[in-house]
Amino acid sequence: MNKSNPLLTAYRALAYVTGVGLVILTIACIAKYGFGTGTSVVMIVGTLHGWLFLGYAVVAFTLGNKANWPMGKMAWTILAGTIPTAVFFVERRVVAELTRDLAAKDEQLVKA
């Protein structure tokens, strides 16, 4: 699995979109419940984030299955989409790890 892998690309895109949507939703919720404004923004962004999160969860689960991750790691990767800004850190770690693993497998193939 390399950086040009469509599944990894979909994961990265959905991670960023989900993360940005959640940050916007958090700010909108603070505006709504703290200051009484932005009700429609919460509804629109909340709905979009919900649907995008479902896509993120499916892609993260599929990626985890293909990479043979343990269930705990898969669960944390999926739950990162529900914690503001966590998904950005998890995405970086996942991409770095998968890239490193692929490089190690390629190196083993060259040596063989």
TrEMBL record:
Keyword presence, Transmembrane helix: yes
Transmembrane spans: 13-34, 41-62, 74-90
Location of the protein in the cell: Cell membrane
Key words, A-Z: Cell membrane, Membrane, Transmembrane, Transmembrane helix
Domain DUF3817: 8-94
Superkingdom: Bacteria
PROSITE patterns: PROKAR_LIPOPROTEIN (PS51257)
Pfam families: DUF3817 (PF12823)
Stored InterPro entries: DUF3817_TM
Membrane association type: Multi-pass membrane protein
Name of the protein described by the UniProt record: DUF3817 domain-containing protein
